[in-house]
């Protein structure tokens, strides 16, 4: 396993060093103009500090396409901030800007810039907010000596220098293209997929159990790399569009391979899940014909995936026509219905293999045709945008803008009280770190503070060592750029800490005539702490809900969605497929939100509150993610069976209704449990529940049966024997349905497809129950963590809740 990590680590180191050299090149160009340029240029670029800040905001892990986009974002930010600033200075007059007036104007301008939380890119907002701080604070300091037009234009010129330096740095010595990054990542993602497929096929055919488990473990380890590669592809797709406008027309060039490989990845995860449930190797159901067919299937899928990879490079390879025998040989061997639930994982593996075969052969569209936009359509879209903007004004999304406005105004006011001439150093860090969503407030503030101190100390040391040699002093930034590039990719500091560190050093080593470096360093550190403190205080006042609380609320919502999804998992309901797809997508988004809150809660200080149970939430995330995959894969089986039953006109038949009753009986047990878990998670505490029962004079005794127990069912209360009995009943009824529709010898291939789909549904139901049991254990562990002195019985708690709210 170590050998597989070495190339990845080398690639990370190379990327860090290349990024550092490009950052150094851009900063060198800014420094050359501001330190050694003609006086006229130095006079125009009056704020070199913001030029450096602009470079750091844009060039961090950027491509050429990103810098092209940054040019537009900087122009948009300048129009958004400098235009109103010129009008405001002309209207009020530079001499009338007191500290109170400046704070008020900055707060209002910040609110306007930060308000459109979704339509404007974060880089544009951060640049605009930084410009606002500099324009109005310098006006407050210099008063009547400020030129209402030229002063804002000098701020704009300083911004433009930083932007164009980034563009040139990304062109030299050779351009770093987003297209290249996406192609390279797609190639690695394809190779990763092929390796996983090969390992999973080896595992199912392996006779030695230990060796099969080794293959499965190796395939699982490749999943982490796949996740990172998908993130890289998503990260650089916007940059591709800016590099080549044609990609906007031929959008499949950058989107389709990723979408296809994501679909393939879902089927591979299903195959992994099935393999983990197989207890004995070799698998007795698989004869030599099926193994040979699986090998042929693997070869064909591999060739088709390789075709996708070669298409990215403008060349092609010949893929043979799909052999109908490949799937037919598998299907014809599956006429016998599985008699026990131990056989279901193998059938589910073969079902996922069939889906994988069909998906890999399906041709992706080569282009997307865009129809000319009609005037009516433009008018309708304009009205929708206006309605969305009005909706934004009255929605909770207004809160980030209000928070930023108050934080920036308060930081500028308190920073100016501490040091009149350096007050904007408290507001600038707040401006350039604006975030439109939640973030780990204390962790981010901590790494920013540490990064600022590290960078500032390095800058002071650099000035001390190279006091008389300004060019050499500036070149001492190169090793610091390399160090901070690694720092930005570390879990300890991340982008926030790394950017703070590089800005802290460059503001000292890249400037001149700012006084004694040690004095400036101390003042700036204090001002930075003032700004970060203001951000924390405002964040706590306006968003006091902890990330751990948000994670629990989102967990409750996801359990409700999971309940609705499983209830939609039906053979007979006409609208079940649409509801299932919508609920599955919703559940997938909620799981993603829980994961985000868990990461934030891990870095959140506990103070006097209960610590966050990370291990328990990670267990819940694994179970919920597995549920999402099962719902997605099972929906394919449902769709096929619904179509086949409609064609056979058997939807009202006695056997199918019997099958649906078994199906729904298992679902009801699962949904009843999940609903109970959601209600238990919502309660404030056991102590609060007991107080409510006492307040309403409700006497509850589980032995006396004072609650409608029939409406409450935990999957764990069924017992393994009863679960096996339900599963066997479903399998027997499924066999009766198949025999009734196709007979024993008729329509062998079609019969085999129905057998495979019904067996896959049986596995899904079994997996639902297994994952529900794991969710129950995790919920119990979570409630026990929150109530350490109590003995936890989820059934007892659920009955109490039912008694209280019946």
Automatic annotation (TrEMBL):
<feature type="transmembrane region" description="Helical">
    <location>
        <begin position="71"/>
        <end position="91"/>
    </location>
</feature>
<feature type="transmembrane region" description="Helical">
    <location>
        <begin position="453"/>
        <end position="472"/>
    </location>
</feature>
<protein>
    <recommendedName>
        <fullName>Integral membrane bound transporter domain-containing protein</fullName>
    </recommendedName>
</protein>
<feature type="transmembrane region" description="Helical">
    <location>
        <begin position="521"/>
        <end position="543"/>
    </location>
</feature>
<dbReference type="Pfam" id="PF13515">
    <property type="entry name" value="FUSC_2"/>
</dbReference>
<feature type="transmembrane region" description="Helical">
    <location>
        <begin position="41"/>
        <end position="59"/>
    </location>
</feature>
<feature type="transmembrane region" description="Helical">
    <location>
        <begin position="97"/>
        <end position="115"/>
    </location>
</feature>
<dbReference type="GO" id="GO:0005886">
    <property type="term" value="C:plasma membrane"/>
</dbReference>
<feature type="transmembrane region" description="Helical">
    <location>
        <begin position="155"/>
        <end position="174"/>
    </location>
</feature>
<keyword id="KW-0472">Membrane</keyword>
<keyword id="KW-1133">Transmembrane helix</keyword>
<keyword id="KW-1003">Cell membrane</keyword>
<feature type="domain" description="Integral membrane bound transporter">
    <location>
        <begin position="410"/>
        <end position="538"/>
    </location>
</feature>
<keyword id="KW-0812">Transmembrane</keyword>
<dbReference type="InterPro" id="IPR049453">
    <property type="entry name" value="Memb_transporter_dom"/>
</dbReference>
<feature type="transmembrane region" description="Helical">
    <location>
        <begin position="127"/>
        <end position="143"/>
    </location>
</feature>
<feature type="transmembrane region" description="Helical">
    <location>
        <begin position="492"/>
        <end position="509"/>
    </location>
</feature>
């Amino acid at each position: 396993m170590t050998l597989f990590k070495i190339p990845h680590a080398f690639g990370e180191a190379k990327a860090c060093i290349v990024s550092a050299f490009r950052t150094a090149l851009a900063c060198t160009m800014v420094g050359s103009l501001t330190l050694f340029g003609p006086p006229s240029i130095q006079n125009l670029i009056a704020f070199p500090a913001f030029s450096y800040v602009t470079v750091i905001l844009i060039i961090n892990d950027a491509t050429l396409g990103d810098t092209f986009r940054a040019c537009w974002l900087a122009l948009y930010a300048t129009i958004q901030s400098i235009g109103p600033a010129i009008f405001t200075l002309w209207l009020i007059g530079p001499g009338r800007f007191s500290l109170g007036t400046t704070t008020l104007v900055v707060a209002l301008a910040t609110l306007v810039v930060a308000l459109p939380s979704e339509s404007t890119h974060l880089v544009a907002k951060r640049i605009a907010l930084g410009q606002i701080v500099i324009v109005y604070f310098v006006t407050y300091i210099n008063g009547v000596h400020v030129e209402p037009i030229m002063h804002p234009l000098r701020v704009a010129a300083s911004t433009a220098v930083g932007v164009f330096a980034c563009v040139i740095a990304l062109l030299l010595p050779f351009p770093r293209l987003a297209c290249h990054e996406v192609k390279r990542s797609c190639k690695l993602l394809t190779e990763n997929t092929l390796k996983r497929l090969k390992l999973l096929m080896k595992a199912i055919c392996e006779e030695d159990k230990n060796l099969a488990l080794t293959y499965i473990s190796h395939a699982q380890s490749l999943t982490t790399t796949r996740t990172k590669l998908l993130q890289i592809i998503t990260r650089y797709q916007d940059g591709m569009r800016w590099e080549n406008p044609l990609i906007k027309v031929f959008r499949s060039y950058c989107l389709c391979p990723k979408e296809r490989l994501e679909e393939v990845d879902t089927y591979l995860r299903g195959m992994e899940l099935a393999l983990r449930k197989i207890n004995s190797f070799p698998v007795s159901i698989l004869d030599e014909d099926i193994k040979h067919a699986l090998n042929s299937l693997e070869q064909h899928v591999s060739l088709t995936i390789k075709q996708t990879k070669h298409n990215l490079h403008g060349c092609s390879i010949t893929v043979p026509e799909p052999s109908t025998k490949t799937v037919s040989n598998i299907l014809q061997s599956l006429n016998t219905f599985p008699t026990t639930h131990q056989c279901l994982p193998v059938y589910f593996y073969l079902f996922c293999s069939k889906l994988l075969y069909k998906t890999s052969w399906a041709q992706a569209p080569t282009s997307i045709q865009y129809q000319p936009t009609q005037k009516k359509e433009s008018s309708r879209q304009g009205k929708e945008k206006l309605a969305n903007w009005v909706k934004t004004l009255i929605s909770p999304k207004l809160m980030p803008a209000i928070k930023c406005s108050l934080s920036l105004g308060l930081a500028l006011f308190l920073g100016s009280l501490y040091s009149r001439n350096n007050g904007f150093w408290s507001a600038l860090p707040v401006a350039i770190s604006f975030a439109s969503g939640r973030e780990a407030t204390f962790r981010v503030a901590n790494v920013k503070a540490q990064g600022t101190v590290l960078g500032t100390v390095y800058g002071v040391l650099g000035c001390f060592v190279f006091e008389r040699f300004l060019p050499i002093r500036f070149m001492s930034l190169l090793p610091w750029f390399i160090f901070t590039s690694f720092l930005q990719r570390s879990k300890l500091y991340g982008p926030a800490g790394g950017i703070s560190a590089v800005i802290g050093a460059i503001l000292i080593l890249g400037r001149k005539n700012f006084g004694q470096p040690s004095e400036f360093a101390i003042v700036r550190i204090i001002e930075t702490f003032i700004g970060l403190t203001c951000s924390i205080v405002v964040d706590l006042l306006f968003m006091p809900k902890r990330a751990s609380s948000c994670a629990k609320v989102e967990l409750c919502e996801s359990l409700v969605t999971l309940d609705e999804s499983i209830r939609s998992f039906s053979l007979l309901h006409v609208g079940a497929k649409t509801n299932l797809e919508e609920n599955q997508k919703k559940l997938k988004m909620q799981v993603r939100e829980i994961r985000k809150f868990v990461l934030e809660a891990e870095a959140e200080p506990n103070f006097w509150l209960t610590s966050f149970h990370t291990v328990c939430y990670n267990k819940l995330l694994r179970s919920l993610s597995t549920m999402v995959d099962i719902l997605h894969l099972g929906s394919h089986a449902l769709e096929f069976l619904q179509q086949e039953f409609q064609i056979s006109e058997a939807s009202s038949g006695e056997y199918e209704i019997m099958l649906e009753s078994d199906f729904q009986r298992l679902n009801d047990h699962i949904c009843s449990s999940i609903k109970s878990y959601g209600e238990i998670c919502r309660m404030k505490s056991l102590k609060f529940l007991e107080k409510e029962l006492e307040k309403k004079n409700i006497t509850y005794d589980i032995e006396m049966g004072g609650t409608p127990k029939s409406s409450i069912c935990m999957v764990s209360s069924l017992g393994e024997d009863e679960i096996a009995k339900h599963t066997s009943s479903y399998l027997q009824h499924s066999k009766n349905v198949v025999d009734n529709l196709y007979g024993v010898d008729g329509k062998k291939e079609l019969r085999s497809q129905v057998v495979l789909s019904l067996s896959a549904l049986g596995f899904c139901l079994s997996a639902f129950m297994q994952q529900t049991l794991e969710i129950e254990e995790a919920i119990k562990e979570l409630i026990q963590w929150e109530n350490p002195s109590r003995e936890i019985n989820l059934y007892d708690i659920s009955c109490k809740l039912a008694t209280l709210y019946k």
